[in-house]
Amino acid sequence: MSPRRNRRHVSTARQEPDSGVRRGVETSESWPDGVWRVRPVTGDAGKTYRCPGCDQEIRPGTGHLVCWPDGAVDDRRHWHTGCWRARLRRAPVLQRSRNAPRYG
To answer: Residues annotated as region Disordered (predicted)?
Structure first.
């Protein structure tokens, strides 16, 4: 007979380390490109979103951020957390056709 596994309780298994940010609570962040409202979400909506930072899909169940300029709720976008933090260091993602030149 195999030894019994120690299982974590459901209430403690889903807790995250205290990072100072609670899930679903909006915060206001001041960046060089303005003041942004940022809300962390768990991705439980069952929808797939497209991250504007890397142009990759954010699959259902993946934790990410919903961000918008302060006062412009209609401009909300779903971002990977890392893409949001690095957006000022990255060049914009350009979509080119297969035969388009790579210069300016």
So the answer is: 1-29
